[in-house]
Amino acid sequence: MNAPTALPLIFHREVPTALIDALKSRFGERCSTALVVREQHGRDESAFAAVPPPSAVVFAESTQDVAEVVSLASAYSVPVIPFGVGSSLEGHLLAVQGGISLDVSRMNQVLSINAEDLTVTVQPGVTRKQLNEAVKFTGLFFPVDPGADATLGGMSATRASGTNAVRYGTMRENVLALEVVTASGDIIRTGTRAKKSAAGYDLTRLMVGSEGTLGVITEVTVKLYPLPEATSAAICSFPSIEAAVRSTIQIIQMGIPIARVELIDANTVRMVNAYAKLGLREEPMLLMEFHGSPTGVKEQAESVQEIASEFGGNSFEWATTPEERTRLWTARHNAYFAAIQSRPGCRSISTDTCVPISRLADCLLDSIVEADASGIPYFLVGHVGDGNFHFGYLIDPDNRAERETAEQLNHALVSRALSMEGTCTGEHGIGLHKMDFLVTETGDGAVNMMRALKRALDPKNIMNPGKIFTL
Amino acid sequence: MNAPTALPLIFHREVPTALIDALKSRFGERCSTALVVREQHGRDESAFAAVPPPSAVVFAESTQDVAEVVSLASAYSVPVIPFGVGSSLEGHLLAVQGGISLDVSRMNQVLSINAEDLTVTVQPGVTRKQLNEAVKFTGLFFPVDPGADATLGGMSATRASGTNAVRYGTMRENVLALEVVTASGDIIRTGTRAKKSAAGYDLTRLMVGSEGTLGVITEVTVKLYPLPEATSAAICSFPSIEAAVRSTIQIIQMGIPIARVELIDANTVRMVNAYAKLGLREEPMLLMEFHGSPTGVKEQAESVQEIASEFGGNSFEWATTPEERTRLWTARHNAYFAAIQSRPGCRSISTDTCVPISRLADCLLDSIVEADASGIPYFLVGHVGDGNFHFGYLIDPDNRAERETAEQLNHALVSRALSMEGTCTGEHGIGLHKMDFLVTETGDGAVNMMRALKRALDPKNIMNPGKIFTL
Asked: Structure pTM?
């Protein structure tokens, strides 16, 4: 396993002037070649060094627009990189082989709310907050919450999850059907609104997590859930990370249907306090949320308090009103920005390992020892109920030694997670950063199967090429 | 949309003597060419007319055995049909293009129980009852229950679900990882034991539901769940099917986490009473099960009773001990056999539509009117909490007119379900029976994408060819 290189392999495929002319002629001002627009579309939230931006950005407003862009790009064998809000963490949006950025953020209509079926169909540019605003009146909600206000298209493409996944699942479990523009510009549907189906290959889940490499997602149908009758949130501080993690393991093993259980280490609490003046105890903490009937929530909370107190957890702080809950969750949602601000000019290299729950403490504690010894500042948060956590190594992007140290830490962490039958990425995807890890994790045979699928569906290799694996 | 033909298209590909000789030389008595063994492996529970059986049956005892059989078959371009216990309902096991049956039922070891992670890894020949026996001591259970005591390999291959799916999901949600022998005889792993992952294409879910057409499943890792602290089961009779179904719709829309909610129509209750002397009221009924804490179960049951009584549901019969629950569930589990015995010599043509929950009553009631008008006897059961139900048309297999009438009824039902944004198959798969329906449901574009995937992974078309779609 080689540590990923700081600069991805770049080879620019030619983008003929004739293609740009054709796009401009068809889309007018909605096809931009302005440098500032191209640069904005040629990066994401990852710490990769910049690569030359795409040659043009097309702002699609309909599935038909997407199909036309892809058809034109296919005619010229030019890469197409779908773009939502740019919140990817793994370099998915970088034009490493050149090409066209296809911005779907204007495709932001909620197409049909089927409250009586607990489903909703949206265009790919709808963000998760926008979706929850739109369905609020129905008494339903969409639970997948990756932190960023990402688009449903992007969340599908990266198989996103987040804080509620421990109870409600990830995009894998929550996408019912997609409309997809294929690499040849055809429009297909991958499923129906039925809750389950055994009708042929599961194209929906083949597309979910394919990171834009198999087609462009143009519609997403997802499940909704009734807003719980009662919701309660709590913060609990622990004497050590180990105590917090061992409490989590026991909560999960006992089958308590906790809706959220998030770890924040003491150092990250300090950063958040500095950023948002929250005045939280600067100790490792779990942020938890319970959903259910009033008595159900009470039962869950009592069981969890009992477990936590066995491990020295103390000072439960409860929140039952939406306002109080928002305050508690501010700590979690601000962690990334607080961390970035704690070291001006830094970039974060985020890890994303996920291990079977029984191995969580071992995986996490050894990695903390290594991170502390390295001297690199970091933040640490985790969807620990799923065995998933993130270090964010806060590096000076111009300091080669720091970058290498961070990569070595990540490398050691991934190796440890894989030895524990875990994965290198719970929710961020492979992108450019983890291609070597993917081979180590799944073996050449499985990656070669992925390559065969890619070649079959995208023979010209125009859909976001150079991501997940090299061909 | 054409009604499927009674006899699938048959063209036998040659099975060279040299291949049979090689298999006999390698596997000795574990390669059988006895007619009785071949015939037993050339049929399933579907009502298809028999086709000539496979040329040989190989009993594999290890992944290595499977890889060797597939490699040999590949060398001779001969079809391989994986076989578990033969409980398929859609003709999956019929050797429509000839070939070799690969029986994995002797690969029946539970390989590792990871109770602390709520996972278990088994060989493909392990059946669901065997699995639940094996994990009983851990206080955990595996919920997917398709009725038949199917193998985990077969259940994965057909994306099975059943009575518990309304709460615990289907094989789609419960398989974490697979080991698969590919069409070239390579052995790959499709995932890890991590609860979630964003590591590349979701090969696990591509294989789940691929009906043996993309490879042979040789290991299955699935999720387990803590046995609920309290379990309660109930039967409730209703004045009409509509009342039972409208109650179900409301239970689901309110988000009550019911573990099972099964419909049995009055006619089927009569058949079950005759078969098993249960003395149940011969009215439409719902069989329900609640899992949770004692108070949670009580709350769920109270809410459901309130809903049911609004629709005229009466005479709740409760069962809380395992023995009483088993008696109640006998009605559901015996429905198929009771129905078959109600008309000696008959075969059942099973429907499997699944629709969004709000359309369930419309879809079901109109289809009952049609079935009653046809004069064909039938049974009717349903996993109605998922919008999924099964008519079993009980035909005389030698009566061409009856078969055609049953196919017409199914055809009308599927058309209705598709017009309601549902699917032709919730859990049985496409097999031979629903290939035309698949095209209507998903469109040529999606089926052509499936064909492209098949050609990419199985260029010689040797893995269970002629199922799901024709190439």
From this structure: 0.96
- In chain B the domains, ranked by start, together with CATH numbers, are 110-226 (3.30.465.10), 230-419 (3.40.462.10)
Burial annotation A78-108 (CB, 10 A radius, 16+ → b, else e): bbbbbbbbbbbbbbbbbbbbbbbbbbbbebb
A111 touches chain B (CB under 8 A): no
Asked if B200 lies within 8 A of A447 by C-beta distance, the reply is yes
B230–A contact, CB cutoff 8 A: no
CA distance A170 to chain B (A): 8
Distance CA A208, CA A187 (A): 16
Give the C-alpha distances (Å, rounded to integers) separating A308 from A37, A247, A270, B281, B372: 50, 5, 22, 50, 60
> Cα distance from B165 to chain A (closest Cα, Å)?
9
> How close is the nearest chain B Cα to the Cα of A268, in Å?
25
- Whether A195 and B356 lie within 8 Å, measured CB to CB: yes
The ipTM (two decimal places) reads 0.96
User: If contacts are CB pairs under 8 Å, which of residues 39-98 in chain B contact chain A?
Assistant: none
For residue A245, the one-letter residue type is: V
- Between positions 402 and 421 of A, the ones with CB within 8 A of B are 417-418, 421
E strand map for A363-465: 378-383, 388-395
> In tens digits, what is the pLDDT along chain A, a chain of 471 residues?
333 444 445 677 889 999 999 999 999 999 999 999 999 999 998 887 779 999 999 999 999 999 999 999 999 999 999 999 999 999 999 999 999 999 999 999 999 999 999 999 999 999 999 999 999 999 999 999 998 999 999 999 999 999 999 999 999 999 999 999 999 999 999 999 999 999 999 999 999 999 999 999 999 999 999 999 999 999 999 999 999 999 999 999 999 999 999 999 999 999 999 998 888 899 999 999 999 999 999 999 999 999 999 999 987 888 878 888 887 888 888 899 999 999 999 999 999 999 999 999 999 999 999 999 999 999 999 999 999 999 999 999 999 999 999 999 999 999 999 999 999 999 999 999 899 999 999 999 999 999 999 999 999 999 999 999 998
Which residues of chain B have a CB within 8 Å of the CB of A214? 201
Note whether B202 contacts A206, CB cutoff 8 Å: yes
Which residue of chain A has the CA closest to B181? Answer: A445
- The reply to whether residue B445 touches residue A187, judged by beta carbons under 8 angstroms, is yes
3-state secondary structure of A394: strand
